[in-house]
Write a structure and sequence with these properties.
- This protein is α+β, with helices and mostly antiparallel strands.
- The protein has one domain.
- The chain contains 2 helices and 4 strands, in the order E-E-H-E-E-H.
- The strands form 2 sheets. Strands 1-2 form a two-stranded antiparallel sheet. Strands 3-4 form a two-stranded antiparallel ribbon.
- A hairpin with a 5-residue loop joins strand 1 and strand 2.
């Protein structure tokens, strides 16, 4: 996992990923992660907020 931070149990992000996510979120588009159909959707904005504490 190196220098990446855990955003969800399955998703780890680094600073480049975070910048890209923030750019997408700036368009006010709904943005959820669902790794497999049986998993619950995770709101990316909320997940990103949890690592920015």
């Amino acid at each position: 996992k190196g220098n990446k931070e855990m955003m969800t149990r399955e998703v780890y992000v680094d600073e480049t990923d975070i910048e890209a996510i923030q750019e997408i979120l700036s368009y006010e588009l709904p943005f959820d992660i669902q790794m497999i159909p049986t998993n619950n959707k995770v709101n990316v904005k909320d997940a990103l907020r949890s690592i920015k504490k």
